[in-house]
Amino acid sequence: MTSQADIDALIERARDSSPRTQPFYCDEDVFARDMQKLVSRKWLLVDHVSRIPEAGQYFLYEVGQESIIVIRDDDLKINALFNVCRHRGSLVCLEPEGKRLRLTCPYHAWTYGLDGSLQAARLMPEDFNQLEHGLHRCHIRVHHGFIFLNLSPGDEPEFDQEFAVFEPHLDFHGFAEAKIAHRASYPTDANWKLVVENFFECYHCVPAHPEYCSRHLRDALVAVGAGPNSGPAEAIERFAPVLEEWQEQAAKLGRPLGTVDDDEYSLHMKAYQQRPHRSDIKSETQDGQPVACLMGHRTECDYGRMYLSFSPFNHIIACNDFAALIVFTPRSAMRTDVEIIWLVDGRADTVDVDRMIWMWDVTTRQDKVIIENNQRGILSSRYQPGCLSDQERRVDTFNKWYLNQLTN
Amino acid sequence: MTSQADIDALIERARDSSPRTQPFYCDEDVFARDMQKLVSRKWLLVDHVSRIPEAGQYFLYEVGQESIIVIRDDDLKINALFNVCRHRGSLVCLEPEGKRLRLTCPYHAWTYGLDGSLQAARLMPEDFNQLEHGLHRCHIRVHHGFIFLNLSPGDEPEFDQEFAVFEPHLDFHGFAEAKIAHRASYPTDANWKLVVENFFECYHCVPAHPEYCSRHLRDALVAVGAGPNSGPAEAIERFAPVLEEWQEQAAKLGRPLGTVDDDEYSLHMKAYQQRPHRSDIKSETQDGQPVACLMGHRTECDYGRMYLSFSPFNHIIACNDFAALIVFTPRSAMRTDVEIIWLVDGRADTVDVDRMIWMWDVTTRQDKVIIENNQRGILSSRYQPGCLSDQERRVDTFNKWYLNQLTN
Amino acid sequence: MTSQADIDALIERARDSSPRTQPFYCDEDVFARDMQKLVSRKWLLVDHVSRIPEAGQYFLYEVGQESIIVIRDDDLKINALFNVCRHRGSLVCLEPEGKRLRLTCPYHAWTYGLDGSLQAARLMPEDFNQLEHGLHRCHIRVHHGFIFLNLSPGDEPEFDQEFAVFEPHLDFHGFAEAKIAHRASYPTDANWKLVVENFFECYHCVPAHPEYCSRHLRDALVAVGAGPNSGPAEAIERFAPVLEEWQEQAAKLGRPLGTVDDDEYSLHMKAYQQRPHRSDIKSETQDGQPVACLMGHRTECDYGRMYLSFSPFNHIIACNDFAALIVFTPRSAMRTDVEIIWLVDGRADTVDVDRMIWMWDVTTRQDKVIIENNQRGILSSRYQPGCLSDQERRVDTFNKWYLNQLTN
Hints:
Three copies of one chain form a homotrimer.
Chain A: H1 4-16, H2 22-26, H3 28-37, E1 44-48, E2 57-63, E3 66-72, E4 78-82, E5 97-99, E6 103-104, E7 111-112, E8 118-120, E9 139-143, E10 146-150, H4 160-163, H5 167-173, E11 179-185, H6 192-199, H7 205-208, H8 210-213, H9 218-224, H10 233-252, E12 260-261, E13 271-276, E14 304-311, E15 314-318, E16 322-332, E17 335-344, H11 353-378, H12 393-407
Antiparallel strand pairs in A: 1-10, 2-3, 2-5, 3-4, 6-7, 7-8, 9-10, 11-17, 12-13, 13-14, 14-15, 15-16, 16-17
């Protein structure tokens, strides 16, 4: 039980130096503050609706020490309910996913509807009001097929305006009708901010990710390998003509254009960027060939890919034929769940899963090792936040955004 | 090192709300307070004398971070000694049980008698007083065959008056001459209070324990399934005629009658209750038939069972032919040892162990799962102590008793 | 995050009682203080130069949460570098030992020379000064073949004068040209001070180490079994004539004489002592026969052995033909790495490893068990620091030295 005043003082000091000092990556009390002030207040993309197509189907989403039931009710509406019985606090659902007619607590059989309302509780006192004892609801929005949760205890935080900018892009890719082709977990023994920082720069791509680099123009990786404005200004300038030429072609094939690059004062630090692969690469596969039919409103391959961040926790990388949804979930000070969900068009008959997952699977395995070694080095007394390269500009933005969140 | 003042403040707040809030089930500093103010001050039943019939035989009893040697000396008296050498602090006995002529520390061979007195220590300074360096003694009482310890550092707390009320019942069952037929461990990853609360209500019996329920009258389970006054008043009233009729028959067969139901201000929150099984059930076995000869002073089966709590940590459930001694031992904030020791009459020739353990073994396995899921749910930020049913009245009494102990 | 003031108060109280109370052996915050005030300020012997004979060869030395690269550069000079990239803090070397042309961080490929200087960092801002971003250096001294590190953050602490007293002895044994014949690890789940206290007394030898005792005169073990003045005054007196007679013979064969016995106010609590084995024992092997050629400047076996402590963390026990280098490395409050490195003369052709390691291997395995049981006993509320025997005088000196270090 570290005093909140001690944490406040630590954050205050970070404003003058950096939030990349040791305790921000290692301390459980700082993690509790991260959960309270940041993770619990953001819209978190947790999965795609196609995971639970039928009434009664559910999965559990676990973040920090929270467990949330995401379940489709009889009207096919999806609800998010804290997995904590209102009676004595038992978990209500024990399996990570399944199908239920109703939610019956395994302890004393308090029974809830699929909307979380309490429907039966035996032998309660006369003044017990069943209506007041539904499962605690978690804010939920389904948007273009993606399920977003927000764990804020109060009113539902604004959603539509915040994410409106993505509308044409999500629509073009047809995510609302997409389906899950594969999923894989890469639990990583490191603080969530190390996972995010790794994702927000491509400075490590050349040394660490040969497979990933083989799919892309070298200039593109340096300029925008980790999203808009992630690289040096001159690299961006050098890449601009290539990008513009490709954009022109892509626009002709129907792709909506645009870029999003939220700053350190934004709510979700969203990002959006589109660019071409290597010119002979149709999809991010080893042979460059697609693994499934084109996604969404496409009629022809445009050799491009999009990068979209709903927040530092959720990212979509979409080729023409499949998309990788990347989900980072903080669990404790030195543990983060990393999950990748591969999506294909809802009309796709056949999907070559092995070829589809090749690049992100090998890359994420590499990142797991890298990030865990980063965490271990930070435990040293000699660790100090180092100077960032010109290819890590988004890491700096993220650090500032993080501190702003803690002090909001 | 949380300040004691912080714990004091937490307990003070619990007086206005509930001691069923998250920290009371999860926090190691609260657990340390539980050990100091409560567990270390109670008479804890740790085993039956028949475990160590011969001189020199011992077993270790471990509670919290304490290890205590319970050993029979050459006069067959049983001593309880802290398993910590007075020299440099090594454990003296390493094996969980065994037989010793004397207690020699494996480190420097300081040698203690079976009463803990220091008998040999080589090369000590001249002013070293051997008499002052015996193993620290733990208060011990042997009562009707049961071994009770009390870890209080001061004078021996009163015993005889506190437990006198059980005399005729313990005598009738012949526990002093009973013998151990089997034992099993069910270590449970949960706070000890969750284990006790589970035991102090039968509200969960119908949903969770079909085997247990199959042995009993439904009315009995609702009214007194977890001891005297554990159920709703009207259920108790409804069950009263059945109970009275059975008591009349049982008394004729020699069973002493009576009920104990200590309140929240008591020292040990003792309880005692007798009632019939289902009318065709002689013993709590799957076929309802006994597994051994009748226990104690019985001459004929009376189809009944007794429930006796020496404290929230120790319970006996006795049929006519065997008794299950249930021992809950706190180990850390989220770990509790659960052990069951099955006893039969000392004259029993043959015992059908599989049939004897069936009901409590399956029921305790079920409870382990239930309680661990209760613990996990309580870790959520949304957990809050819920309203109790009319069948959980003893849980409420226990919660109040617990708080009273902490503030005594 | 326990306040430093709380730790200060604990140390202050220990001055009036003992630093052998429970928190000094169990508490992670006390361990952090041990690291800061003591371990990080001492010269620690970490290995022998023969482990890394060639340019580019390195090994990692891990102490507390620190990882240090000990590497031989192209001029064959050995450098010690904190294994923490100056960029984002990743570990630079991941394998426990190996050979490198340069040190390239696996994360972003910042590349350092074998002296730690930063040689390449892509895409850094214009004002980035490469010269200021070498790996943090750890103080290092190579002395008679032994590699010493000192983790002090400031100027290099004095070395030459502190260890000058050992010169003739280290020279006589030829350690500078010795080579490693074998190494073994005995990680021990106990506080480092329990490991040191175990090594600083031979009071436990008779009960715990039959193999060790079989090699030595009983009188020698009692008098000086754990170094100079480790036993009772009268035992030392009784052993004196035997010792003197042997010294006279040994001196004739060239062995330099002398004793070192640093007191509680010293910097490193060094110690040095020579004495004979049992008179029929040439080497500390099971059959008493040597396992290799004589070490150093010897021409003939003198049936003796030397005991040398550079500090409580590092000890050499040398027979005529081999030496055991014993290295204790604190890792956390209840974890200590124990490593033994066996050395033989650099000219030794053949070494009988099994016979060489027999005594220290079996003895160290025994000590691991003993020390871990000591740690477990200390967790009890009834543990209190006991009275020491006349054969544990160096334990008392160590306890006082330890407290002096914490308050310096």
